[in-house]
Amino acid sequence: MTCRICNNSTYMVLDLGSTPPANSFLSSIEDKIENFPLVLEYCSSCSNLQLRDCLDSDKLYKNYYYVTPKSQTLDSHYSFFTNFLLAKNYLNSESSVVEVGSNIGDFLQHIKPYVRSIIGIDPAENIAAKANSLGIETICDFFSTAAADNIKKKYGSADTIIARHCFAHNASPHDLLQGVKLLMAPDGHVIIENAYAVNTIEGNEIDQIYHEHMFYYSIQSMSKALELNGLVLVDLFISQVHGGSISFVATHAENNPTVLDSVADYLSYEKTVLTKSKLLDFASSASKIKIELNALVKNILNEGKTIYSYGATAKGNTLLNFIGLNNESITYCVDSTEIKQGKFLPGSKIKIINEEEGLNNPPDYFLLTAWNYRDEIISKTRESGNYSSAFIVPFPELKIMR
Ligand code: DWN
Q: Is residue 102 within 8 Å of 121, Cβ to Cβ?
C-alpha cells in the first residue's frame, strides 16, 4: 500500500480482523451489519500510521451517534486549550473562528465570550441540527475546498481554524489542508488536535483503531502533510485528553514564521517511540490483552459474578469485537448519551442502558471501555453511592481498580 500523506510505501503493523463501523449502533438486536477490515499500516518515510482500508465518509457520518459528553475532564481541557490559544495570541477578541467537526458546539460555546465570531461545520445531520438548536451556528457539511470557499464567500476569511479530533476522520488530509489554506486569513492560524500516535503506541491503545480513525498523526506526518499544502507547523502542545492528544499549530508557509522550540523538543522524543521495534511491541500488546482479558472475564463469570461495560465508545467496540466478548459475557453497557441508550453495540450486541439503570442494578465489575474518563467515572460511581462494583481498566496495562 502507499502512504496517503507522502505516497511512499507502507508496511502492516497490526491486523485487528473485520469489524462493523464503531459508531453504527443497532436499533434492534436482529439488525444485520457489515464488517470491514481493520488493518493498521506504517510509512517509515514520513512516520505516518494509517488504516489500510478507508470507508466512505457518507457511510460513517450520515447518522452519527457520537455526541460530546458532559464531562468535567472535557470542561477542564477546554479551559486549558483556550488559555493556551489566548496566551500565545492564536486567538483574541478580534478573531473570527471556524471550528471543523464542531459536533454539538460545546467547544464553540466555551470560546464564544473570548472572540469576535464563531461558526461550526459538521457533516452529521442530527448533530448539526442539535448544535443549531442550541444557538451555535453550524453548517451541515464535510469540510473541503468547496465548503471552505462557501464559508469564505459568506463570512470572510477565518483568523483561527480549529479542528479537534476530526482530521483523522478524512481519508485525504490534503483535501482538508487545501480547504484550510483557502479559508485561513493571511496571518491566521489553524489548530489541529488529534489523538497522538506516541500515546497510542506507548499506551498500548489498540482500541484507538477503528474505521473513523484513518490516521494516527505524529509530528513528522503532520509536518509533511502541512508542508505539501503550503503550511508550516509552528507550535504544538500535548494533553491527556482522549488517551493522549497533540494539538498542532500551523500557519501559511509564505509568512516564513518562527518555529517554536516545542516542535523540536517533542520531535526528538517522538523519534524514539515511532520505531520498528516499538511498533512490534504495540502489535504484541494486542495479543496480550486478548488473552489476559478473556481469561479474566472467564474467571469472573465462573465465580457467578456479573460484568457491564462502561461507555458505549467507538474504542470499546474495537476492543470487544477484537477480544470476542459479547452479550453472553457482558450483560449491559452503561452510557450517558441519550441517543445511544436502548440501542445495541455493533458486533457484540450488548444492550446500552442509562447510568441510572446501571446504578440501580450494579454489576460486580465494570469493564471500563471509556477508560479515558477513568477517574471521572470512578468518582462519579462512588459519589452516587455504588462502592461495590470494581472497575476493569484495559489500558495501558490490564488492571482492576476497587
Ligand atoms: O475521535 C473520536 C473521539 C474523540 O470520540 C471519535 N471518532 C468518536 C469518539 O470516540 P469514543 O466513542 O471512543 O469517545 P469517548 O469520548 O471516549 O466516549 C465516551 C463515552 O462514554 C460517551 O458515549 C459518553 C460516555 N460517558 C458516560 O457514559 N459517562 C462519558 C462520561 C464522561 C461519563 O461520565
A: yes
